[in-house]
Amino acid sequence: MLDGLIHEIKIFIIEALGLEDVAPDDIDQDAPLFGDGLGLDSIDSLELGVGLQKRYGLKISAESDETRRIFASVRALAEYVAAHRTH
After folding, report:
1. Rounded to whole angstroms, how far apart are CA atoms 35 and 13?
2. How would CATH label the architecture of 2-84?
3. What is the model's pLDDT at position 60?
């Protein structure tokens, strides 16, 4: 189940951020989303956070220390979604 959710989140990231030249297979599920990994920035994290709240019914606080852990990688994000989604 987690593999399917990982793929779904990769597609979500690509669509939400308009990453036209990136395919799901181009995104390493364990690589950092920010910095040296996918190279996302703080504005990207806000867009993803809002989109994830709408799509999965999540409550993600921008001020939470846990937020860095949630957005550490696609795998970390998928694990959080799997555990906390409401729809």
Report:
1. 16
2. Orthogonal Bundle (1.10)
3. 81
Q: Please report, for residues 38, 41, 42, 72, the alpha-carbon distance to residue 35 in angstroms, rounded to integers and kept in the order given.
A: 7, 8, 10, 10
Checking 28-34 for CB contacts under 8 A at 24+ apart, the result is 28/73, 28/74, 29/73, 29/74, 29/75, 29/78, 30/73, 30/74, 30/75, 31/73, 31/74, 32/72, 32/73, 33/71, 33/72, 33/73, 33/74, 33/77, 34/71
Residue 54 three-state SS: helix
Q: Is residue 76 predicted with pLDDT exceeding 90?
A: yes
CA 32 centroid distance within chain: 10
- pTM, two decimals, is 0.89
Residue-range domain boundaries for the chain: 2-84
Per-residue pLDDT tens over the stretch 23-55: 999 999 999 998 888 889 889 988 998 999 999
